[in-house]
Amino acid sequence: MSKSYETIFINNKKWIQEKLGQDADFFKKLADGQHPEYLYIGCSDSRATAEELMGMKPGEVFVHRNIANVVNTLDMSSTAVIQYAVEHLKVKHIIICGHYGCGGVKAAMTPADLGLLNPWLRTIRDVYRTHQAELDAISCDQMKYRRLVELNVQEQCINVIKMACVQQRYILDDYPIVHGWVFDIATGELIDLNIDFEEILTDIQKVYDLTNSHWLMSKKNNKNLL
Ligand SMILES: [Zn+2]
């Protein structure tokens, strides 16, 4: 009896032939290294892919996915990905992409003990608490759910901007820029929430300034003199 996953290996062989048909050096170039301009942080949901929905090719996007696209300062996985992307790959854009119909966000709106998921969903429940007045004023449950998806993206953008590596590199290079997007599974549309990166950065630095700005500015000025 054939196993369903065997199809994947058949698909893989087809994909190799397709790529080589378009460019005989495709895999040689891929093996030379990666220089992605984008870091994409999205949900693990099987419907919200990264490269496919953005029309990007292998090598163009550094990707991190977890349940409900959360960036938590205590989560070594997402913070290590961000630090590597910012300091070593020197990505120019960091995208937090949520999606309507997110099961993780829905679970965080559910008053129930969800076991191991509790600490993970706590971050999203905290987003609800931070924006409780706005969310509680929305009478339609579906609209409230959609708004929490958007607010979760916004708050995770703020969590990224709080990171020292992001602030420090922005002072030196004017990059990376942090973007908040939502993918609408029902239409396929990618929606830009137009997060005001500069404004958020200025605002949060009143409390979370981790730049050692005097030292960094002298480093930047010296770099410009060279
Ligand atoms: Zn999701």
TrEMBL record:
Catalytic activities: hydrogencarbonate + H(+) = CO2 + H2O
One record GO biological process: carbon utilization
Binding site for Zn(2+): 43, 45, 99, 102
Coiled-coil zones: none
Stored InterPro entries: Carbonic_anhydrase, Carbonic_anhydrase_CS, Carbonic_anhydrase_sf
Gene Ontology cellular component list: cytoplasm
UniProt-recorded Gene Ontology molecular function terms: carbonate dehydratase activity; zinc ion binding
Record keyword Lyase present: yes
Keywords: Lyase, Metal-binding, Zinc
Enzyme Commission number: 4.2.1.1
Note describing how the cofactor binds: Binds 1 zinc ion per subunit.
Cofactor: Zn(2+)
Domain of life: Bacteria
Record-linked Pfam families: Pro_CA
Entry similarity comment: Belongs to the beta-class carbonic anhydrase family.
Record function comment: Reversible hydration of carbon dioxide.
Name used for this protein in its record: Carbonic anhydrase
Lineage: Bacteria, Pseudomonadati, Bacteroidota, Flavobacteriia, Flavobacteriales
